[in-house]
Amino acid sequence: MTKIMYLFTLFLISTSVIAQSPSADTAKLYFISPANGDTVTNPVTVRFGLSNMGVAPAGVNMENTGHHHLLINTDLPALDKPVPNDARHRHFGKGQTETRLELAPGKHTLQLLLGDFAHIPHKPPVKSEQITITVK
Ligand SMILES: [Cu+2]
Q1: How would CATH label the architecture of 22-135?
Q2: Could you tell me which of 98, 120, 116 has the C-alpha nearest to residue 53?
Q3: Beta-strand pair 54-55/65-72
Q4: Mind listing the pLDDT tens digit for each residue in 84-136?
Q5: Pair 121, 67: CB distance under 8 Å
Q6: How far is the CA of 6 from the centre of ligand 1 (A)?
Q7: Considering the entire predicted model, what is its pTM?
Q8: Rounded distance from Cα 8 to ligand 1 centre (Å)
Q9: For residue 102, how far is its CA from the centre of ligand 1 (angstroms)?
Q10: In what order do the strands lie in the sheet with 98-101?
Q11: 53 Cα–ligand 1 center, Å
């Protein structure tokens, strides 16, 4: 194999590894509850709404699907890499569409971000608005 062919192969491999799944043009990710500005009490039930795409568990590569990530008190992560997995970036890789949170009293921000089978945001990303809630 010539050197140029080798480099081209490396290029193909690297682009396939970082390839992002396409999102549906009309996809919409939103909070069913709570609403922006709500005052709530623990445990906080958060319901995830997704229109025009489907939910699939992590690891299942199906077109126009993904699983939910809930970002708590943090801005969006890098949108071309797997979503971090920590207390501020919660994965719902079994396909869950709601969760219950225990949050300290005070203001918190929440945002949803859909990820594909490999936890990578779609292109363009499917994300909700960032909402602010107050926990009593
Ligand atoms: Cu994930």
Answers
A1: Sandwich (2.60)
A2: 116
A3: parallel
A4: 999 999 999 999 999 999 999 999 999 999 999 999 999 999 999 999 999 99
A5: no
A6: 33
A7: 0.87
A8: 31
A9: 20
A10: 28-33, 44-51, 98-101
A11: 16
